[in-house]
Every structure is written in C-alpha cells, then in structure tokens.
Automatic annotation (TrEMBL):
Ranges where the N-acetylmuramoyl-L-alanine amidase domain occurs: 222-297
GO MF term list: N-acetylmuramoyl-L-alanine amidase activity
A GO BP annotation: peptidoglycan catabolic process
Name of the protein this chain belongs to: N-acetylmuramoyl-L-alanine amidase domain-containing protein
InterPro entries: Amidase/PGRP_sf (IPR036505), Amidase_domain (IPR002502), TAT_signal (IPR006311), TAT_signal_bac_arc (IPR019546)
Length: 379
C-alpha cells in the first residue's frame, strides 16, 4: 500500500467514529417503531430477497460439526442411501507432523488464500492437496516444516475422495488434538512487524481502530490491547484455513474470484467453527486485516460476513453468534450496515458500488426492512 493510500485510509479512520455515530440516526429506509414481536424463522426466509449468486452459494451450504477429538465431520449417503457421518479426509502438513502444541484458546479464525492460480498448466483445477504441497514448501525458517493451517478448502463437493480424483471440498490438514476446544496450533500468521520499519504491523492496528470506531466488538481488540499477539503470536490464539486462489481484490468482481462452491465450503467450515469456538463474524478475520498481506481481500471478507448474516437469518447458523453483540432494536439491519461500512471504509480500487451490486445489497436491505414492517404491523 502506498503512502498516499495510507494517508487516505487514516483520514477515514479519524472520521469514521463520527460516521458510525450518525449511522444510528440515518438508517437505510428505517422508520422508528415499537419493539417488534418475534416470528417464526420461516417468515423471514420467505421475505428476504437474495440475488442469484448468494442463492446458489447457500444452496451448496453443508452442515459440519466436530467430534470430541476435534476432527471435522460431515454427513453423506452410503450405498444404501442411508445418512452416515464421516470425518473429512486428513492430509497433515509437515509442520503438524512435528509440532503437537495446543493453542491457548481459539479467539480468531483467520481466512487465507494459497496465492496460486486455480488451474495448473495442463488445465487441471487445483485442489486442497496442491495447497498442502505449497504450505510444506513455504519454509522461511528453513527447518523443513513449512507453514500450516488446520484446514484447506477447494472448489469441489465435500467428500472423502479416497481415489484422489477431483478435490476434497475441505481437507483437514492437522491432526486432531484430542480436545475439540483446543486444537493443535498452526503456523499461518507469521509476520508480526512491518518488515521495512521494524514497527508493529500497521494492518492489525488499523483494523482494531476501524472496528472500534464502527462499534464492532471483536476478540481482536483484546489480543492487541493485552499485547498477546506479540508476546505469544496469533498462532496460539487462532485457527485458520487456506483456499485456492490469488488476486481476489485486484480481480474483483470479474476475474480471479473463488467459485461459488468454494465460497460455500468456506462458509460451511466457518459456521462450524463459530459454533465450536463461540466466535462472532468479527472474530473471523482476513489475513490482510491482521498482517501486511493481500489475502483474501476486503471485498471477499465483506461478502463473507454478508453471507454469514444471511445464513443466520435463514437458520443455517445460530443467530445469537451473529447478532447478539449488537444492542437495541433492528440488530439484524445494523449488522449488515456494519458489514457494508467496513467495505466502504477501505473502498479498495474504488469498487464499493460494484460490491453492493455483486451481493445484491440494496434489494436485500429493502426486503429486510419489509420484514420489519410486517412484524410491526402484526403487533
């Protein structure tokens, strides 16, 4: 990021506190009313308007869970069409073969991409196994162990894929620790300082400031305030996943974007982690939000947090994990506004308006306001 971009971003951050305060009185099409009654979940599912892209992503959503050992589980059909539960395939990284140290706590889920093109030179689509190979080869310490995350995600349906044809959907890439709430730590958040100046990495500080100014609560703030992210490193307080791809932000919205199936797989994994570790959408952070990295990008994380909110409204993830940190009436609407404000704050490459179109933001917000009106009228 250039110096001029830094100044522009900081200028916004200085003003965003005032913007956030004004947002409470300038909601999109929202008319103050009495506290609405609570209706069945199906009511809102029928009223919400999502575009074709969001609808297809949610159609691929797969409920996942963890066993007591910490293995990731999914349901599938056996040869007799009976529902069975299986663990996802395991392909441990070199790091995980040597390091068996549990995290101190899981306070963040860090989202990455593997910085590789989707297709190999022969036209074959890359999968999570290719990502693991890349992690093993990323060895800045020279100890032969490489980098490591807990899972790798690709654009194929979630399956065991014993014959290794196609992909995996989600590949578990570290051994289960035997304690589902404390998996073995990875090595995926490496840089903690500005390499040029030797000072603390500015990205994590700016993200904390942005969240604070917008009234967003996140475990990230305490990790920074208490200095734990420097003392022990974020790897001891986080889990993470890699996914296929590169240049999500530079290519947005037309090129180099992850497939809808891949986004759905990442969403399925993320919501399982939210339930398992009691994380909110603001504890789900892009690598670029905490380090001087490009992955996965601001538009990706804006879309991802939007999808988490829609998934909650459609009953795919507990609403208390998504909306409970927001006080007052119309907490659902305020959540989506905060998502939009984080994207608008950066406006990477000046494409915020394209992002709204990409996810169908305005029509969705209109339909959410319609739902509030219906609930108010039914009192």
């Amino acid at each position: 990021m250039s110096k001029s971009e830094r100044l522009t971003r900081r200028e916004f951050l200085q003003l965003s506190g005032a913007v956030g305060a004004l947002a409470g009185t300038a909601r999109i099409g929202l008319i103050p009313a009495r506290e609405p009654t609570v209706h069945e979940q199906s009511d809102i599912s029928e009223i919400l308007v999502v575009n074709e892209r969001v609808s297809e992503i949610l159609s691929y959503y797969t409920p996942l869970s963890f066993d007591e050992q910490g293995n990731l589980l999914f349901e599938t059909q056996d040869e007799y069409q009976r529902t069975i539960t299986l663990s996802t395939s395991l392909l441990p990284t070199e790091f995980s073969k040597h390091v068996k140290e549990k995290v101190e706590s899981v306070e963040l889920l860090v989202v990455h991409y593997d910085a590789g093109l989707r297709y190999l030179l022969d036209g074959t689509e890359r999968n999570a196994r290719n990502t693991v190979n890349g992690l093993n080869g990323n060895d800045p310490d020279g100890d032969g162990r490489g980098a490591s995350v807990q899972w790798c995600v690709d654009g194929f349906p979630i399956s065991r894929n014993e014959n290794r044809e196609g992909g995996y959907g989600i590949l578990q890439t570290q051994y289960a620790s035997g304690a589902a709430d404390k998996p073995y730590r990875g090595k995926h958040v490496y840089i903690g300082i500005d390499l040029a100046s030797g000072e603390k990495d500015i990205n994590i500080l700016e993200t904390v400031e942005l969240f604070k100014n917008l009234g967003i609560k996140s475990n990230l703030e305490n990790l920074v305030k208490q200095g734990r992210y420097l003392q022990s490193g974020l790897n001891k307080y986080s889990v993470g996943f890699e996914q296929i791809g590169i240049y999500f932000d530079p290519g947005f919205p037309d090129t180099d974007q992850p497939t809808r199936r891949q986004v759905a797989n990442a969403l399925s994994l993320t919501t399982a982690c939210m339930r398992q570790f009691s994380l909110t959408p603001w504890d789900i952070v892009g690598h670029h939000e905490i380090q001087q990295k490009s992955d996965p990008g601001y538009y990706y994380m804006g879309t991802f947090r939007f999808l988490i909110g829609v998934a909650a409204l459609k009953g795919l993830v507990p609403q208390d994990l998504v909306f409970d940190d927001i006080d007052g009436k119309y907490r659902e609407l305020r959540y989506f506004e905060k998502v939009a404000e984080t994207v608008r704050a950066i406006n990477r490459y000046g494409r915020y308006g394209l992002w709204e179109d990409y996810i169908g933001y305005k029509k969705f917000i209109d339909s959410l306001n319609d739902w509030y009106e219906i609930r108010r009228g039914n009192r």
